Predict the structure of tRNA-uridine aminocarboxypropyltransferase.
Amino acid sequence: MVVVSPSVSISFLHRRLPPPRPHLLQPRPSPPAPPRSAMAFSAEPAPEEAEEEPLPLVTGPGEVTAEEWRRWGTSSPLPATVAAVVRELLEMEAQAGQKMRFGGVGSKIKGDFKDMEDKKHRAVYETLADSDQKLQYFSARQIACRLLGSRGYLCQKCWLPMEDCMCAKLGSCNLWQGIRFWLYMHPKDFLRQNNTGKLLWQVFGIQAAPLCLFGIQEHEDIMWDAFQRSGKGKVSFLYPNKSTTPMSVKDLKFDGLNLSCDHQDEDVKDGPINFVLLDGTWSNSAALYRRLKERWTAIWGEEDIPCISLSTLSASVMHKLRPQPAWDRTCTAAAASGLLWELDMRSELGAFELGKQAEAVECSLDVLLDALTTRRLRLGRSITRKQRHNRNCI
Ligand SMILES: [Zn+2]
């Protein structure tokens, strides 16, 4: 548990439901795919958190400005809930007469200040009327701690410690205007060094691949407003085996799009197809999915939300650094690249160089893997998967 106690865990939201196993691959009718090749997207598991390095004790002074917020990878205004939590923390710091310290995974508050803050945030939590408010507070607090704890330490673009910044090695690429990726990210993945969702806006830009933080109202409203503008026919979630009728990339309809690669204005007029990538750990992705489904049903009155599965996803290079039984999962960026490859196989989309865009994502994954590997070697950490997971290896 990172910054909330078990009694105020987000798990209250889905305590009665067993965690689903989100598979990106649809089962192949013949021959059946072995379990280890049935991959789903995922970030990293809890066990890896324990071995992540502590944050140095550096925090900048003062509140988070709108500009500082945007430099982390979003064009949204600074969320009001995040700003409020930051302000509370700074006020508490002033009253306590001692510096706040953060450390470990998720920028946990450290030292004497921790107990004081813990009491205070529990008290706030108790006053919140419903589960949605509690969720929003949980998200805001997670994000506020990460913002303060990462100041002056992480590169604001690549989310790596500044001495390992990989930005100079990353190339950019235009994403075809007929599609847009939404990174629906769990707060615990925000500012994580080995998060791969961030690669998408690093490669394609924050307009083509916007970040939407789970439980942050401003972000979620921006995303859903975009969905309502484009219409429900142009929204697709990469979260398979949930729809009554499972869909794959070949079921997507591009009828409304101008399939001409040299009429960009007309493409924009029609609006892109919105692909939502759930960017969180295995268990957190279930909460992300539930929240998406709730809002979909509230807006369009339908229980069945349009999910698609990928069929040709290859193992993510990130697996090499992820000590988890992850042979049946893959990371968010690899899911995006897999989707682009499948779209590239659609003959009517052949002119849009989607394969090239998929390669750009894969290159960025290689760059991230190299940067993380270099760092781990320097810090004397293992770069292979833990022995206990090797039984799952091919
Ligand atoms: Zn950087």
Q: What stands out?
A: The chain has two domains: 2-26+163-378, 47-154. The mean pLDDT is 77. Residues 327 and 393 are 7 Å apart (CA to CA). Residues 155, 157-158, 160, 165-167 surround zinc ion (CB under 6 Å).
